[in-house]
Description:
The protein is an alpha+beta fold. It is about 30% helix and about 15% strand.
Amino acid sequence: MYHEYSDFFWKGSSRQFKQNKSKDLAVKYMQITSGLDKIVSKNFSDCLRFSIHKQHDINSKKFYINLLPDIECSKSPWMNVLVNEGGKLFLKKYKDIDLNVSKIIGFDGF
């Protein structure tokens, strides 16, 4: 497993180190997410649950909310970067952004 942002977090580290750290972080993240999911399901079983991720399971108890209604794509805003290319907005993986063509949209919308 190789996390695309590992060069940013561990610049100058070996590929093996980056793979190991990425794997450890991914496992911890999944454990935390799973635990939180169980706590929320148990304590708030009668509430609606929303997600920024499209649910592929039609029996899912979560409802998808599109945070970026003007952008139709299957990419998650959680895992991608919002960019402006010639007045149009796109979600792209950071590694795929050409800064000569794209402008990254910041937290303030600019």
